[in-house]
Specification:
two-stranded antiparallel ribbon, 2 strands
Length: about 325
């Protein structure tokens, strides 16, 4: 074999290797693209299925399904306003309780905690998200509800005299909007804390050093320099917690009391959209009843999707501002 032939064969082998690498890269790109498209395809498929099943109810009763309070299966009236009210109120109560706790945990872990304690505490807080909701519900039934009925509710109503307000009036049943809000607060706390911790850790060190160099105390540095810089990300974490609270089913169903009434008192039993679906889905005896439940699910789907989309946008915004 001549030297020219050897060089030609070597060049041919290199060309073959380059072509094989290009084919492998193209195949890998197609696989990852398909994997990335699976999630939006699933969301679209779920939305189509839910709205298709809900359309007969929407066509018959329209938007009154979320504005009316008359839920009469026999009469063909489906008004889920008490469930919508309970969903929003219980989620708001959860955020009011969980947000300061979660931000406090995040600030402690990022600014004050010694390094040996940061990881164990962070792990335990994140572990709250891994506990099944039915376990939270059982804990709520056997621990939280008796505690609320015998201690917390009488203390709020009588000792603190908050019973004079409409928000803490009425009998102390135990199963109530307050119980649901407390359960949801515990369940939303790890989501808010995790996101808040990450955005606080991402605040540039120069931001802290500049505040301290100007004479700020440590607390003033956190309050005036660190938290404002991470505000969008913290709000995103709060809204992720809100999305988690809106869609929770089992734990809320077990402690809220499941009474379809609108009441200003947090001591009164309530209802949520998720618990309405869970309680009645197996008992839906006709197509219109089933479609009405699917319509409630479609409304909850839209609300949750919007909340999570806004949360992701806020987190993306704070990440972009750092780059």
């Amino acid at each position: 074999m001549t030297a020219f032939s050897a060089r030609w064969l070597e060049g041919d082998r290199r060309t073959l290797r380059v072509d094989q690498a290009a084919i492998g890269d193209r195949f890998y790109e197609l696989i990852t693209t398909a994997a990335a498209l699976v999630i939006p395809a699933l969301v679209i498929a779920i939305a189509i299925a839910i709205f298709a099943a809900a359309w007969p109810a929407f066509a018959r009763v329209g938007l009154s399904i979320v504005t009316s309070s008359d839920w009469d299966v026999v009469g063909g009236h489906f008004g889920a306003a008490p469930a919508v009210f309970g969903t929003l109120v219980s989620s708001m109560v959860a955020l009011i309780i969980a947000t300061p706790l979660a931000i406090g945990v995040a600030v402690f872990l990022t600014e004050f905690s010694p390094s040996w304690l940061r990881q164990p505490v962070g792990f335990l807080v994140d572990l709250l998200a891994a506990i099944p909701s039915v376990v939270y519900g059982l804990w709520g039934i056997f621990v939280l509800i008796p505690l609320l009925r015998e201690k917390a509710m009488p203390f709020l109503r009588d000792t603190l005299h908050l019973g004079a307000t409409p928000f803490f009036s009425g009998a102390a049943y135990g199963p109530s909007m307050l119980a649901a809000g407390l359960i949801l607060a515990i369940m939303a706390l790890p989501y808010i804390s995790s996101v808040s911790r990450e955005v606080l850790l991402a605040v540039p060190r120069s931001q802290r050093e500049a505040a301290l160099a100007l004479g700020a105390t440590r607390w003033e540095m956190i309050h005036d320099a660190v938290i404002p810089y991470a505000r969008s990300g913290i709000i995103g974490g709060i809204m992720l917690g809100l999305g988690r609270s809106l869609g929770e089913t089992m734990a809320v169903t077990m402690v809220i009391g499941n009474r379809p009434e609108i009441s200003a008192s947090l001591f009164a039993p309530g209802y949520t959209m998720a618990s309405l679906i869970a309680n009645e889905f197996s008992e839906a005896t006709n197509d219109l009843h089933l479609s009405a439940l699917m319509a409630v699910g479609a409304s909850l789907f839209v609300i949750t999707l919007i909340v999570n989309a806004i949360a992701r946008w806020l987190v993306w915004r704070v990440s972009r501002s750092r780059s």
